[in-house]
Design goal:
The protein contains 13 helices and 11 strands. By secondary structure, the chain is α/β, with parallel strands linked by helices. The protein has 2 domains: 279 residues, Rossmann fold (3-Layer(aba) Sandwich), CATH 3.40.50.1820; 150 residues, no CATH class. Helix 2 packs across helix 13, helix 5 packs across helix 7 and helix 8 packs across helix 9. The longest helix is centred in the middle third of the chain and has 37 residues. The radius of gyration is 21 Å and the shape is globular.
Amino acid sequence: MTTIANFPFFSLSFDNDGKSTDASQLTALQQHVTNDKSTDVVFIAHGFRNNEADATNLYTQFLTNLRTHLGSAEFKSLAPRKFAVAAVFWPSKSFKEAADSVDGGHAQSVGDDDGGRAQAEAALKDARDTIATPQQKQNLDKAIAMLDELEDNPDKQNEFVKLVLSLTDGLALEPSEGLEELRSKDGADVLANLKAPVILPTTDSEGDEGGTTSFTPPVPVDGDGSTQGFGSFFGKIFGAVGTLANVTTWYVMKNRSGVVGANGVADAVRAIKTLPNSPRVHLVGHSLGGRLMASASKSLASPLLQADSLTLLEAAFSHYGFSAKGPNNEEGFFRPVIANKVVKGPLVATYSSKDIVVGLTYAVASRLARDNTKAVGDANDQYGGIGRNGAQNCDVGVADTLHASGTPYSDIPLGKVVSYNGSDGLISSHSDITNPAVTYLFASALTRTS
């Protein structure tokens, strides 16, 4: 048995459809929970990761800091509990989320002598090779062959965008994600919108107040210095093409995370929760892993099986996800989690104005869905993310400030969606979710479960 920070650690691996790739993994977890009489099982899910090692590193950092908290006098009430960890691994290799750092705080140049053509082609080929069905592969091959015909040719641009967007065929995402708006536009308009800089708020703001900064968008930088994600050489047709390929990949991954959560993880939770010793179950998700865990929770609504807590860390789904009524009077996609009281204990979500990844992806969705030169992606935008702005327009929503480690929470409300703002230096980026302040919040939430 593997242990990390003295937590029994079990991998649960799933394919694109949420089917287990190794049934013995869940069996081993069930046997341990039964034999060890585990009182609590923590299911934790990563977002976009390049490989399993990256995800394991994230889990290790999170659990190491959590173990430090659990060893302190403040959390002595948790000492008698026996924890096990179910680490979710899902296929999200085709897009990287390490998009928080840019050289000197500025977007790095990703253009080349051909105005970004090589990068655009590489993005299309990556999508073709990693997420496309056989028919979609043919469509992307046609699109790649059209690259040199796009400039100043609206008809070709319209055809090209339809071919790329075939990657989203069959996806069923909520209206607040902007996909249907994107599909309804002419391809030439889509590419024209993607040429212009995206303006993101740099601080928490009300309405149009507060600082803003112009992004083009910033280029994600991995640990090895390579650029990934939504970066593009704006003002050029190939930059718009690269961004279109990446945002399309984003929609595919968003849908996949939901499928894995609703199918694979929800089934695994039921298998653990219904063991003879009926341990507490805690769901934790980062980025699209947050969407995965919200989807698992929604699936647990029928037939109802309550999770003991749900923790969303810079989650990548609509900030209207838990709303009774969104901007177009529709119910939030994850509203059944609230309506059916799926979460017995705390439901907490971190957010930060420093989360460029969630802010940028939703700002791009907003730009694609409508012509808007004002600041986008903030709390007032129809297309905003919960990891950037917290839960919006939620009748059971509560806003609070993330505490530094060691500063106790007087109370974490139950029956509410509590959004904790880490913008003031406690969450410095999208992936800054393993630090002592965030893990302290999770440990504090654990004390509110019985």
